[in-house]
């Protein structure tokens, strides 16, 4: 009975990796830029969940997965309170996948949690939690019943580790729908350049001015795996906000995305996966 109550409590928590309730959030720590107001977020939406992500107090450095300091400490505005693990797994696309999957689980939309490996093979959380496990031979992937059903958070994290090992920017870029008009950018969109390596940053908040221009906050992990952090704008180093005027290139502190790099998780993505 105690184990069941603990499991239900974890499922009820929107950020179950935290040992206690968040002390600060993105929304509380970062005010909109002058002349802008945050775009309203529907209750229970990905936008609302992202805006409420917990952040570490103050301005701590970014650490790598092994505890070392990241060499570049000038790229980040603040650090999210999201564990990175102890292996070099949660890199750029993996951080996007982690946050998307965590939201879907918190929203009780677990059957929509599915990502493709670089080979194109789907990895469904619904299959994993029922005890299915992949057998991988080169690019061939088959799923077999080799474990007991387990829907716990610990099992969910092991599933994500598997996805991190076999997915990346190349596969994620193929899953996302291209955003035709970046001026209508939304929280949860992804600037992504698929490749080996490529890079991906996640839009975690959006504000808008009276003229309809949108400004966004971007979060990333990088290589090696490291704390997820909200980026500074290299064009305005004291600000984390990026004004999106069109489909031009986007320069972040550690990557330049070419035009056409904005993608979005589609409502049918899990079905297609």
Describe this structure in words.
With 273 residues, the protein is an alpha+beta fold. 24% of the residues lie in helices and 24% in strands. Strands 1, 2, 7, 8, 9, 10, 11, 12 and 15 form a nine-stranded antiparallel β-sheet that branches. Strand 13 (250-252) and strand 14 form a beta hairpin. The longest helix is centred in the middle third of the chain and has 15 residues, at 92-106. It is globular and about 55 Å long. The model is unreliable at 1-11 (pLDDT under 50).
Strand content: 15-25%
Helix content: 10-25%
How many individual helices? 8
SSE string, helices as H and strands as E: HHEHEHEEHEEHHEEEEEEEEEH
- First and last CA, distance: 36 Å
Q: What class do helices, strands and sheet pairing give? A: alpha+beta
What are the low-pLDDT stretches, counting only 5+ consecutive residues below 50? 1-11
What do the pLDDT scores average to?
Answer: 93
Q: What characteristic shape results from the CA principal axes?
A: globular
Q: Taking Cα atoms only, what radius of gyration do you get, to the nearest Å?
A: 18 Å
Summarize the main sheet.
Answer: 9 strands, antiparallel
Per DSSP E runs of 2 or more residues, the count of β-strands stands at 15
């Amino acid at each position: 009975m105690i184990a069941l109550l603990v499991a239900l409590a974890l499922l009820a928590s929107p950020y179950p990796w935290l040992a206690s309730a968040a002390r600060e959030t993105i929304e509380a720590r970062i005010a909109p830029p002058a002349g802008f107001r945050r775009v309203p977020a529907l209750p229970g939406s990905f936008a609302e969940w992202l805006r409420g992500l917990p952040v570490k107090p103050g301005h701590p450095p970014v650490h790598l997965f092994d505890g070392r300091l990241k060499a570049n400490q000038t790229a980040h505005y603040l650090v999210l309170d999201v564990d990175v693990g102890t292996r070099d797994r949660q890199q750029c696309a993996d951080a996007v996948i982690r946050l998307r999957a965590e939201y879907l689980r918190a929203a009780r939309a677990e059957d929509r949690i599915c990502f493709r490996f670089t080979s194109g093979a789907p990895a469904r959380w619904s299959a994993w939690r029922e005890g299915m496990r992949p057998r991988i031979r080169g690019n061939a992937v088959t799923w077999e019943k080799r474990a007991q059903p387990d829907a716990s958070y610990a099992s969910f994290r092991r599933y994500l580790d598997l996805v991190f090992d076999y997915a990346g920017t190349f596969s994620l870029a193929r899953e996302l729908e291209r955003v035709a008009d970046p001026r209508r950018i939304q929280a949860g969109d992804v600037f992504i350049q698929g490749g080996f390596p490529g890079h991906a940053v996640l839009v975690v908040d959006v504000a808008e001015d009276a003229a309809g221009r949108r400004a966004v906050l971007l979060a990333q992990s990088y290589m090696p795996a490291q704390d997820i952090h909200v980026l500074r704008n290299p064009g305005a180093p004291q600000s984390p906000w990026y004004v999106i005027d069109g489909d031009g290139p986007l320069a972040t502190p550690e990557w330049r995305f070419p035009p056409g790099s904005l993608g979005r998780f589609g409502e049918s993505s899990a079905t297609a996966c």
